[in-house]
Amino acid sequence: MNMAAQQAALHRSLTDAWAHRGALACLLWPLSLLYGALASLRRQLFKLGVFETGRVDVPVIVVGNVVAGGSGKTPVVMALVQHLQRSGRKVGVISRGYGRGQRDCREVLADSSVAEVGDEPVLIQRSTGAKVFVAPARVDAARALLQRHPETELIVCDDGLQHWGLQRDLEICVFDDRGVGNGFLLPAGPLREPWPRMADLVLHTGKHPAFGGFRAQRMLADHARRADGSALDLSDLMAPDAKPLLALAAIAKPEEFFAMLRATGLKLARTDALPDHDDLVSWSKQDHSAYRILCTEKDAVKLWPLLPDALAIPLLCKPEPDFIERLDSLLAGLLIDRSRAALSSRHGHTTS
Questions:
Q1: Which of 7, 150, 181, 229 has its CA 20 to 30 A from that of 348?
Q2: What does 196-235 look like in DSSP terms, one character per residue?
């Protein structure tokens, strides 16, 4: 078994342990108490001002989760940004840029590489056309974005519920069907912080929400996308003379992607599950010439420079109308409050 397969197997074992309060979870529970104490101390130091927090001049919406591993937040970010763009809002996006090789603050451009900015920021920029900045400290990314693009009306932060260095105006907490798992903090369970906690909106991307909140429907598109941007109907991959299909996924829950592919009627001859955010370099050097390769859009931004014939299957996320209505209502209030504060500040400066 190679290193990637070992890492994937370890991740699956840990994920299984986090679903129940079994022997392994109980064995790790004392460590979770230490983790919780350190996390609580860190939050308090931010609240007391020992650690600096920063605010920017436009509303900040944080989309994140309290559960380790993917919960579908990046498709939620893209759906949210696209909705706001359709509403006429000038939206910017910030991210830490997980897995990038640099530690600087930079803008994600159309030709940015995954190594420079991370796979999810590249996907968000190419899918939405929004202005996207990455930095280790998200407040730095937000300030750089506003300096470069002062017309920006609001910022969406991809992940960062636990990034207390950036003050936020609205929090959206995303869950999948795992809910909160066994309810333990890391490493005994999947929680990064105790739940329940305050959040403006809770959105479930799975089919069976564990508790209350809004729901989002997730589905695959009816087409695949080539590296040049052109589309190929999925039915073309089912032709009798078509190559066998190999599905690749280097995401948090690869089996879910494979199941969604099969649900469309595609017959998968082989599936390869790799660790989340894998760079795919080693995998791409193997001989896959006998197969037609299918992958997620997130993987495609890394795979296309290596294997340009790979096909990406877009994952669509559609929050329920009640969620969108509530979001718009909260955002309208935020924008009114910010406008009033700006007018008051200018008036006070003028009359002082």
A1: 150
A2: S---SEEEE-SSS-SSSSEEEEEEE-SEEE-TTS-EEEGG
Do 101 and 150 lie in a common domain? yes
β-bridge mates for residue 317, sequence order: 218
Q: Are residues 232 and 283 in the same domain?
A: yes
Domain assignment present for 70: yes
Which residues span the domain enclosing 283? Answer: 222-313
- The torsion defined by the Cα of 327, 329, 330 and 331, in degrees rounded to 10, comes to 80
- C-alpha closest to that of 198 among 220, 168, 224: 168
Cis bond upstream, residue 150 (ω within 30): no
The verdict on 129 and 108 lying in the same domain is: yes
**Residue with the larger pLDDT of the pair 350 and 15:** 15
Q: Tell me the per-residue pLDDT of 44-98, one tens digit each, with 9 for 90 and over.
A: 999 999 999 999 999 999 999 999 977 889 999 999 999 999 999 999 999 999 9
Q: In this structure, what token pair is assigned to residue 328?
A: 């718009």
Same domain, 195 and 297: no
Same domain, 149 and 101: yes
Taking residues 195-220, what's their average pLDDT? 94
Cα distance between residue 352 and residue 349, in whole Å:
5
What is the pTM for the complete model shown? 0.92
For residues 169 and 190, membership in a common domain is answered with: yes
Contact (CB, 8 A) for 265 and 58 = no
Q: Summarize pLDDT for 226-236 with one digit per residue, the tens.
A: 999 999 999 99
